[in-house]
Automatic annotation (TrEMBL), chains A, B:
<dbReference type="InterPro" id="IPR001342">
    <property type="entry name" value="HDH_cat"/>
</dbReference>
<keyword id="KW-0479">Metal-binding</keyword>
<keyword id="KW-0791">Threonine biosynthesis</keyword>
<protein>
    <recommendedName>
        <fullName>Homoserine dehydrogenase</fullName>
        <ecNumber>1.1.1.3</ecNumber>
    </recommendedName>
</protein>
<dbReference type="InterPro" id="IPR036291">
    <property type="entry name" value="NAD(P)-bd_dom_sf"/>
</dbReference>
<feature type="active site" description="Proton donor">
    <location>
        <position position="205"/>
    </location>
</feature>
<dbReference type="GO" id="GO:0004412">
    <property type="term" value="F:homoserine dehydrogenase activity"/>
</dbReference>
<dbReference type="InterPro" id="IPR005106">
    <property type="entry name" value="Asp/hSer_DH_NAD-bd"/>
</dbReference>
<dbReference type="InterPro" id="IPR002912">
    <property type="entry name" value="ACT_dom"/>
</dbReference>
<dbReference type="GO" id="GO:0009088">
    <property type="term" value="P:threonine biosynthetic process"/>
</dbReference>
<keyword id="KW-0486">Methionine biosynthesis</keyword>
<dbReference type="GO" id="GO:0050661">
    <property type="term" value="F:NADP binding"/>
</dbReference>
<feature type="domain" description="ACT">
    <location>
        <begin position="350"/>
        <end position="425"/>
    </location>
</feature>
<feature type="binding site">
    <location>
        <position position="105"/>
    </location>
    <ligand>
        <name>NADPH</name>
    </ligand>
</feature>
<dbReference type="Pfam" id="PF01842">
    <property type="entry name" value="ACT"/>
</dbReference>
<feature type="binding site">
    <location>
        <position position="190"/>
    </location>
    <ligand>
        <name>L-homoserine</name>
    </ligand>
</feature>
<keyword id="KW-0560">Oxidoreductase</keyword>
Length: 432, 432
């Protein structure tokens, strides 16, 4: 039977992994899709270079047109990264009726809807399982689940670097800066860690998950994003004392038809399944009206896990080719954007304050909360740290973001308040 | 377009849930499979009874032949339970070229391979996602993963009743008997809880998972099964003190081509993802050579979760019907049974002993381990409980089951040994 021809854009660790898997599992793949799969061309930056995989030099090219314009190539696997230029290339490949498998989260977060629309219009598949949590079949699970359920909440630990850093800070009581250096030395964090530690990488993945889960086009700018750079050992210490674990959490929540998407350091009860996702692992927690709580846990990155889910996508494409139903699974968002206003976003909050150690101060502070009808779940009044200063740690009951932000402003105006040391969202109470 | 006709065997809570979902999600299902899905006949025990769903009386029947022998019915959904009789009915339905979706773990654990072989021979689908961990798409995930990976280990919390009981015992320090009564009052445990608390239910599910994951026919008799009825508060207390959480764990492990499948109360480090699966929730931890560690968490039972995964299976069947590829996914085990011998099964063990409080006893005991080359990871020598008795809690390094069982025998022969209070397997050390 005619072999399926693959064009591979990029031959880094992931690209090499894809080639290894296709070679090592040729029989299994045959058995699954009923025809051989062959890598016809691979785009590289320079020829004659040392490679992680043995590969026939004649397969390599530095000219992308030999792939996207070759009528003999059926599927383009994109693992080279980049956004603007890559978007153009993939749109052109789709014009040329090529199916796409991509691991490119930046691209999918920004141009996903456009690419999906183009794919569907051209009867092409566009699969992107590897763009979120490499080793976790979360995209497929959402697509399957959506058939007979309505997803109302997605919470994700979708960045391995920050989860590794927070895990070490929590377990070893180390400072952010020290753990970051260690993570960089170990290769868990990049020389320029900004997009990880500032939460941007997680925000991109949440855009992809929310867009799919709610079938609503969400833009990166819609995601309220806070990174972990200001998290201190004290915060983690008090959080632990109150029964919470801190995670950089992506939250996508739908009430009725209105949604909220955000990324921020968030406190979860120790007993919450997301709380025991440690080190560089990822996990996505899904709440569906019918099925209730589910969670998918696995490696978020790594060349083999990522390559594995790329090959799973490839198998999906090839099956669809043989059944001539390509394009049906490339579904662009069906709902108009409909974001919650701050007064519609409810959660609990952890707040740590330094106040003047004077009579009546505590009453003064709590009255600000009372004025907004916000009460407390936990209060920790701590011994004076420095002369004349008391530390107060509070966990509120659910409050609207609007009320909470007004409370913070009003607290800052109080003479008795020295400093708002930290403030975090608290999630994971019963009923998700 | 021609509607797909369903015959439903059983109208209990799950059956009613299936009907609700098919009604409430008709449009979504249409969109997915491209044709309407209609429930043509429902087998019930008696007519004219109060139902959980509004359903046209004319759809109900007490004669199973109106379903399995009706040429107009395409898919049979079996949610009535039972084994021998149900096997016959489904084999007959398969003979009649009907596709099967079943939630019946007892049936699949015992006759799964036979039914899958029959289905594949008749070009029929046989899907059974709901037979293991109702709300978790574990079967589908294994099938997908198998395409490009080799699964070497499966560990599952696959029985909600026992997980609820162990969770309560651990969190509230209660005795097994008291928690069981509470669970029965709450409906989490049945009046006759034997098949749950003795581990049989979990063993059946592990047979299904191991058979699929290793593509090897495993029989129920091959599963070394121990329940939770002898677990004491003291055991949980000491386990906690040593950093472990106890779960009734199904373990399926493959080294090379030889496998081991067992179910027993097992200690896991608090930090292991399975350790924070609480109450009635289920989770399956999968280790694949390529992807590494993944875990799938969700409700193990409940009518809606179970009904939801039945409908997902139904969608798969209908898609295959439209693409005329039914039967390809019904794959009977491909490897001959090849079980590990006791000397090939390695793990750590937790052991609690009561010994005579005399000089030299400790040396006497440790020498038994030394003789078998088994050393200790943790030792807890505790203050005398009753006059002349000392308590020793040990955690060994990895030992073969053969060595460990010999050690237990030799310990029992020691005059210094009063009693082996408890012994548990310890799992979840680094590297799965």
């Amino acid at each position: 039977m005619k072999a399926i021809s693959i064009g591979l854009l990029g031959l880094g660790t992931v690209g090499s992994g894809v080639i290894k898997i296709i070679e090592n599992h040729q029989d299994k793949l045959m058995h699954q899709v009923g025809c051989p799969i062959q890598v016809k061309k691979v785009l590289v930056q320079e020829l004659g270079k040392e490679r992680a995989v043995k590969i026939d030099e004649s397969v390599l090219t530095t000219d992308v047109n030999e792939i996207i314009n070759d009528p003999g190539i059926d599927v383009v696997i994109e693992v080279m990264g980049g956004v603007e230029k890559t978007r153009e290339l993939l749109l052109q490949a789709i014009e040329n009726k090529k199916h796409i498998v991509t691991a490119n989260k930046d691209l999918m977060a920004i141009y996903g809807s456009e690419l999906l629309r183009a794919a569907s219009a051209n009867g092409c598949d566009l699969f992107y399982e590897a763009s979120v949590a490499g080793g976790i079949p979360i995209i497929r699970s959402l697509v399957d689940g959506l058939a007979s359920d309505r997803i109302t909440k997605l919470m994700g630990i979708v960045n391995g670097t920050t989860n590794y850093i927070l895990t070490k800070m929590t377990q070893e009581g180390l400072a952010y800066g020290d753990v970051l250096k260690e993570a960089q030395a170990l290769g868990y964090a990049e020389a320029n860690p900004a997009s990880d530690v500032e939460g941007l990488d997680a925000a991109r993945k949440m855009v992809i998950l929310a867009t799919l889960g709610f079938s609503m086009k969400v833009d990166l700018d819609d995601v309220k994003t806070t990174g972990i750079t200001k998290v201190t050992e004290e915060d983690l210490h008090y959080a632990k004392q109150l029964g919470y674990t801190m995670k950089l959490l992506g939250i996508a929540h739908r009430d009725g038809e209105r949604v909220e998407v955000s990324v921020q350091p968030t406190l979860l009860p120790h007993s919450h399944p997301l709380a025991s996702v440690h080190n560089e692992y990822n996990a996505v927690y899904v709440y569906g009206e019918a099925v209730g709580e589910t969670m998918f846990y696995g490696p978020g990155a790594g060349s083999l896990p990522t390559a594995t889910s790329i090959v799973s996508d490839l198998v999906g494409v090839v099956k669809n080719m043989r059944l001539e139903v390509n394009g049906s699974s490339a579904i662009a968002p069906q709902h108009e954007k409909n974001l919650k206003a701050p007064e519609e976003i409810f959660s609990k909050y952890f707040l740590r304050l330094h106040v003047k150690d004077e009579v009546g101060v505590f009453a003064e502070i709590t009255s600000v909360f009372a004025k907004h009808g916000v009460s407390f779940e936990k209060i920790l009044q701590l011994p004076v740290k420095e002369k004349g200063v008391a530390e107060i740690v509070l966990v509120t009951h659910k409050a609207s973001l609007k009320d909470y932000e007004e409370i913070l402003m009003e607290l800052r105006d109080l003479k008795a308040l020295k400093e708002v040391k930290s403030s975090y969202r608290v999630e994971g109470s019963a009923g998700a």
